[in-house]
Amino acid sequence: MATKKLTILHSNDMHGDFLAEVQGAGGRLVGGLALLSGYINRVRREEENVIYAVSGDMLQGSVIDSEYRGISTIEVMNYLAPDVVTLGNHEFDYGLPHLLFLEKMANFPIVNANLYIRKQNKRLMQPHLVLARGGIKVLCIGIITETVIEALRKDAQIASFITLKEAGEEVGRIAGAYRRADIDLTVLLTHIGFESDCELARLLRPEWGVDLIIGGHSHTVLQQPACVNNILIAQAGVGTDQIGRFDLEIDDANNSIAGWRWQLIPIDQSLTEPDRELEAYIDSLKSEVDRKYSAIVCKLARRLTHPRREIETALGNLLADAVAEMAAADVALLGSGAIRVPQLGPLVTLGGFLACYPFSEPLTRFTVSGALLRRMFNHWMRPENRSGEGECYQVNGAVRAVYSERARQVATLTVRGRPVQDGETYTVALAGYHVINCEANLGVTSAELAGERAPRVVTTAIQDVLLEYLRENQNASRIVEGRLVYQA
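The structure corresponding to this sequence follows.
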């Protein structure tokens, strides 16, 4: 059996992670786009047939990206020259028109098969791409996460096949159209989270010929790919500290994978030299940003951490307290995923704060019944929402919620030391994204949220509220104190 070799390098959820970090006593440089580019360049020199793919969320998460509204990230990605990229939810953070502008800037193809312009029933992006490497034909199809669809609900021009079943059928239509084209390998580039990737794989028919799913969104770190329905599923964590690598043996006579090896490659200076041209370009961007954002906002009493979005964190507690105080609300529900850094402080610069919370959106105060409030907590605290793909929250210090895993419901919920009563009313502060997506993220409709009393927009920019709070509260500190408890 004659086979051909193909190497697929893949990244996901890079989030504008431009800069290398110093780690360990020896001062070893880890990650950053210059080192990542150096490794990609090396593999392209060493191997004959190479594809580099990115499974969404190139944008958002760094001050440099926010300052240039993703333009800097696309310019840097042009240095890396990926062969194919799919959309993630954060590609939409600067708005749909700006995304279409960024796509025109990109020197690489961006594929997505299930976003449509509603009126004309035309796909928003190029749905798929066939890459030829050394006589091997690779069909790449892009699939988006339902989270993105939620973010676009306010845009009436865009529609989508949003369910996994519909997305799977769309894959089937595209793969079926290429049955006679002698495709050797079919790869889905997804941004739907690892668990959803596995569910999607179970829905795909063998005759559609999907071989690999390379995913993102859930920031999953794997020891080895999963294999579901004879489809290999891989993901490469988050950021630029690592890259996934498939070394494949392709049997082009039978259009199948004859052998494979996958590695999660750590990116550090012991592995490769940085791409010096890219390093110089990133340094020029950093210098501009540093001049603007080096101003000191405040000093915290100690470093506050935010290690995981599914749990109560010290940094989350501080920011949720700020939201509750500035909104004069009984309860603040601050999206954990909006906090984009694992730690902040003690010294907080303007740049450090914007990297921590890069979203500027309205903050609205609602008045809800105790019964509705309890329903919201039951919805987002449920176990399946804490898989790394759901939307979790940080809460202010007036709140204590104990969730019983056995009973699958909130066992106790108190506000300012008093149990929440179904018939009483409570004020709740929510950021704009969570207002738009309240049904998916909190299990309540917009009408239910607004039912007790007319909502009030506290500010059009929650980012400004948080910044003002930090400036006025020097030496602030928080600990994890049991605001959110999950009882086994």
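The CA atoms of residues 76 and 281 lie 8 Å apart.
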